[in-house]
Amino acid sequence: MIQDPWWGRIGYDKTIDPKTINIYGTTNSPFWMCFSPPGISGPKGPGVSIYVRRDIPGLLAQYSDSLPPHPDVLAVDVIYNGSLTTLVNVYIHGDNKRYEEALNHLICHPYPSSHPIVIAGDFNAHHPNWALEGSKWVDNHPNPNARLLDNWISENDFHIFNDLTMPTCIGRRGQSDSIIDLTLLNSATVDAFEDFEWTCKAEGAMGLDHNIILWTISLHIHADGTTDTKPPPNFVIDLEIEDDWTSCFDFLLSLAHLPLDPKTPADLESMANGILQAMTQATQDTMPQKKQGKRGSQLPWWSSKCSKALRELKHPSDSRSRDVRRAALRGAIRRACKSHANKVCKAATVGNIFRYTNWYKGKRWAPLPPICFGGGLVTQPQQKAIALTDKFFPKATLAKVLLEPIGIPLSPQRPWHSITKEEVEAALADLSNTSAPGAFGTNYQLLKWAFSLNPVPILALYNGCLTLGYHPTCLCNAVIAVIPKPNCNNMSNPKSYRPISLLETLSKCLEKVITQRLIYESGKFNLIPHLQFGGRDMTSCINAGLCLTHNVKAQWALGKHVSLLTMDVSGYFNNIDHARLVYTLRRLGFAHKICQWLISYLHERTAQPKIDNTLCNLINLLAVGIPQGSPLSPILSSIYSIPLLRAIQDPQVHTYAYVDNFSILAFSHSHSANAQILKEIALLANETLQLLGLEFELPKSNLIHFISQKQQPSNAKVKIPLEHGALNITPKVVVQWLGFYLDQKLNFQEHIRYMANKANAVLAGLQMLANTVRGMTMRHARILFISCVQPILTFGLLLWFHGKLQKSLSNPIQKAQNAGIQWLTGAFKTTPTTALHHLASIPPIHIYLHRLNTNAATKFRALPKLAKVSRRLPPSWDTHNPSLPYPPKPKSNTTITPSPITRLAALSHPDAKFQTPYLNPPWRPDNPFPGRLVCAFPPGGSLKNCQEKIAENANRLINALAHKGTLVGFSDSLKESEVAKFSGGIGPCANIFDAKMLALALIAQRCVRFARSHNIQKIHVFLDNLAAVRIINRTKPHPAQYASILFRKEVHAFLRDNPRRTFVVQWIPGHSKIDGNKRANRLANEGLNLRPTAFFNPTSTPHSKTVRKHIPRPLSLKLHPIFNNPSLPCSVSSCLVHVMTGHGWFGEYKDRMPFIEGSHKCPCGKQVQSVPHLLFLCPLSEDSRKNLTNVAPDLNPLTLFGSTKGLEADTAPPSPV
């Protein structure tokens, strides 16, 4: 129990306000539970905290309901083997206002007398009843607060247990010793602990003016009935013992005797339980148990020097003062922490560097504080679970939901197709092995092993669930993890938390398979209006932002006033009506088996909240809502909201939806008229939602009036009538919408400033991982910058960046990037940023933004033709909707910025080849002929060292195949006798990849025809383009998709006609002395002089000329090999940067920078210490110079700093003498 604990910055928050960037907290340890007064987040910390060891068997601790938490008064219930004792930590400050608040909080609440209560702390009060014997306080008259405290102690039957001969506070600077730290026991404590053993000593006080007070509590008869809620053991999934786990799982599965052809729901229950129990038992039998931390175990950073300093403080061996020894301990701990962090960062790898970003986030595990419920506070985990779930999940539906179409057209029912092995494999491939498991404790890594070993039981279970329309009960339970919401002060309010459902991985895999089918059918048959930008594929919030910005600028061009109203659906996921959802699915034509299974899946679901590491009792959920942790939640919620999107058909509004976010864009002759339109549409939308059993959370709505250059700001409010009066929604200057910060003029200045602030906050946290001397290497720091900082800086750039006269807009993010590059290179702030961008292989921000723009432009032809962005493309595009207003092209001398869709479309071409989505349903594999249709390519990784060996093996294979009746092809030439050849051009708008894909498709077509006519059963094609070999048989949208369609049509028909036929596409290295490949290259060169085939002119790459206007040379985004070396310490890489840029701790640099103090002379006596002098002339550097002369005898700087060998010599350690 600590009074006035340390409180300081423990991390950085990713926030838009630089004033709130710091995260504050107190000391934390993995071996202790830290109890602090909740709700304190500022720099002024609490006055008390209590630490309880985690690893003592039978010891539990929780916030007490005997006394509400206060910044200076904290009560904790300690339960030892069922014996309850309440500990109250008190710190009464010397400040009068805070003194009275804490004292009143302590004495104004009743305390139960049924169990022991110990109140201890610093009371800062003197009274004769607890004065030190022989001190002046024995005869002094106490002040009113001391008398009030003494009266309260006697009236409430508390006893002072201090030894009045032992001072608790040591007087300093003329003060006398005294007793102000009291230990108060109620009568139940006196009766329960006969050997309380109260002691007070200076040892361990770390030089403070307050002594350490120790007392002992033990088992007693006052038990609270709390059972031992010790959490189940956790196991470490060790990838190296996969074979042991799979063998054990296979054996246990064989003992289960699962019914592989389930006929009844009982069979499905048996199968699901058998698989889960086999996985769980195999884990317990083979995997090592996670260590909980033994008592007395040292922290990983603790060193022998820390132990020595601690012994010196406890048992002095010299005459040094206690303050000196205390400072020595602090210094030893500080150095040990830095040394440990440096070792960890140096040993980081690409696979684990993101784990260390948690260091700066200030995350601390702490028990949930008391939760308000039933007019009081609840503290036990089970009580907290009831209080939280009462708020998380609805008690009943808001209204009776009508099963009527409400604008949903009736579609014919589509057939059901069995779940395939390929579907499950694709679902598992996208799932993370580190995802939190459900109640059985099995994660996706174990499920992948189980399915890879024996897919039959899992496939039988999944297909049985859909065939019988039943979901096993054991898969309907969810573990509810409670996550605190950010920036909430009242942590006793259940609304300050959000639930996360942790479902069984065996169930989530099935849900993901069904999700992919729902998404496919929704997109294939246009079931969900394209106004919904969330919960579906091939769209995002960026697309919604593009449409909104385009619509605003289009209406401005027509002289209209535009206003936006954003609204959120209250408790969307938890209030979806099951009957209405299934009715909607049936109406949309989904298979009967999916609807029947979904009824069972949503029926009689249960939840188990996990509070303070305790898995609480099951809670039955009502027949409403869908689990938020399920893959089904986004797509089902989007389907459920279809009536809302179809109900609004007003020519003066545009609507946008992103799952539970609904927005209305109104335009008319004035903002006042817009307010009236928004009111009517909001009421209509709310009425429609009420028919679905939902409603908007209208008080959280935001309103903004956009103003063009010629328009004036408006304060017109939207007045929405409610049952208890009207709600006035006042317009704002800036509103947050889908992560964008929209201002009235739509120039995005606030958005850019906020993004720069968030990026700077993240960068401030990353700086603890590396500096110029120690920490992560430059390679790993660059990865963190590109992954964690750049996406924040560039979020939303498509809405505002067009590259002309935007220096003021891009400056904030350029400055943030400059700071990041200075950090990752270890450079000085004065170093020219142009050089740093080159050394870090990171382009300046304006070039990078141009690159992202051109990348986005290439995706326009991959969007569905009915997508809202596609319908707003220029009139020259075939997807353009002429009924929508289109902004005119701005004049060259105008300051009006163009629509972002218009601008991005100018970077592409209307004749670019359209990429067709939804060609292949998910239940039909891309390769329906496994073993017969093979696309052979080497595994991922570097191919430079093995290309010659691959070429040799390919030559031997070609010679062997040619004598076995196999048709062998090289793009357009054949081995042995050449039976066909082809050369042609495909136009200037295509690239090499287009040519390779088309050549592969054409050779497949001609080989198939030749094989059919000559009764050849085997075809083997060689190609020197790895990307083409990888994707030639894929159906998802990709560049040169037309070639894949032609290839699949010819090859699949060839293989379908005869089961003995095979077709192999194999990659070979280019320019590798393979005769057939040489012949193909000659034919390709001949095709350059031929007239291009007109049909193949429109490819997916006609925007390349436009790209070269902004980026004349291709960017070198690959880090230089010398800096890409993971073994190069950051101290060496930063020193190399200092030398190459001339900005380092050199005398010449100090002489140039007047703000740096210090001599500019070289220690050798040279007047000015310059970089050339250090490298080439200084006699003190003679030994190190030998490395340089070995590479460049003439010490040519071009060799030393312009070649890899020279840079390796620059960074090599000195040669031994």
TrEMBL record:
Keyword Nucleotidyltransferase: yes
Keywords noted in UniProt: Nucleotidyltransferase, RNA-directed DNA polymerase, Transferase
Listed InterPro entries: DNA/RNA_pol_sf, Endo/exonu/phosph_ase_sf, Endo/exonuclease/phosphatase, RNaseH-like_sf, RNaseH_sf, RT_dom
Alphabetized GO MF terms: nucleic acid binding; RNA-directed DNA polymerase activity
CDD domains listed in its UniProt record: Rnase_HI_RT_non_LTR, RT_nLTR_like
Stored SUPFAM superfamilies: DNA/RNA polymerases, DNase I-like, Ribonuclease H-like
Region of interest (Disordered), ranges: 877-898
One Pfam family cited in the UniProt record for this chain: Exo_endo_phos_2
Keyword Transmembrane helix belongs to the record: no
Residue stretches making up the Reverse transcriptase domain: 464-742
Name by which UniProt lists this protein: Reverse transcriptase from mobile element jockey protein
Protein source organism: Rhizoctonia solani
Phylogenetic classification of the source organism: Eukaryota, Fungi, Dikarya, Basidiomycota, Agaricomycotina
